[in-house]
Amino acid sequence: MLKGAVKVKIREFIYTKSSGETKNYKVLVQKESSSFFEGISLLDFSPEDREKILTIQKEFEDKLNPFYTVGYRKFNNASIQEEVIQK
């Protein structure tokens, strides 16, 4: 795999809600921070729809990956001097 190439990340876990209830999850991760992550809860879909979602994600990766050899960069947030906010 190319350095920085797009690669889907799936996390499976047991989650405890604030009510104390626990639930199993399998999540196609879309966004992560040091405290939280967000994504598509795959177990909320039928097996057929889960397969469709994963196929779409794979097609997306395959189409985008060639561009990573040219444009992929990693940035340290502490080194950003000024961020331009676009509306």
Give an overview in words.
The chain is α+β, with helices and mostly antiparallel strands and 87 residues long. 25% of the residues lie in helices and 26% in strands. The protein is built from two helices and three strands; from the N terminus they run βββαα. The protein has helices spanning 47-64, 68-71, and strands at 10-16, 22-32, 37-41. Strands 1-2-3 form a three-stranded antiparallel sheet, with no helix packed on it. A hairpin with a 5-residue loop joins strand 1 and strand 2 (22-32). The termini are far apart.
Mean pLDDT across all amino acids: 86
| Rg from Cα | 17 Å
* Quantity of strands, as a count: 3
Which structural category fits the helices and strands?
alpha+beta
Instruction: Please write the string of helix (H) and strand (E) elements.
Output: EEEHH
How many DSSP helices? 2
Helix content: 25-40%
Gross geometry: flat
The CA-CA distance between the termini, in Å, is 35 Å
Largest sheet: 3 strands, antiparallel
Low-confidence stretches: none
Fraction of residues in β-strands? 25-35%
User: Biggest sheet, strands in spatial order?
Assistant: 1-2-3
